[in-house]
């Protein structure tokens, strides 16, 4: 059987469920994730994760929230994405578009994948400085309930 790192690197995102992705992230050591997150694969992984955020959004938990969340994923370079939550919808797009996002979350590649796959405790990651938060900490603390995140 292939090791988890090579499985992650060869992943066909069209076919993998969020639960399977969470299992692969859980089995793959952070050093391997960091090594894999380079070039085209990194761009493909980030693009897929953010497009799935739109589909896994739980509008019933958002209430009247209107916010832009900026994600800065550091690694070989900083990839910036924004998710906009407004009127019961979530849209994601690459780049920094909002002049003043409500909150900015900054973390490395491996920590980002652990967070969005349900394999990392947001509170612990914040307390250990694996995730840095600038802006509205209240919005940041409520993000996990806004998305259908697999239980890693």
Automatic annotation (TrEMBL):
Query: Can you name one GO molecular function term for this protein?
Result: oxidoreductase activity
Q: Pinpoint the SCP2 domain residues.
A: 59-148
Name the InterPro entries for this protein: HSDL2, SCP2_sterol-bd_dom, SCP2_sterol-bd_dom_sf
Q: What is this protein called?
A: SCP-2 sterol transfer family protein
Transmembrane region(s): none
Q: Which domain of life is it from?
A: Bacteria
Cite the Pfam families for this sequence. SCP2 (PF02036)
Family label = Belongs to the short-chain dehydrogenases/reductases (SDR) family.
Keywords, ordered alphabetically: NADP, Oxidoreductase
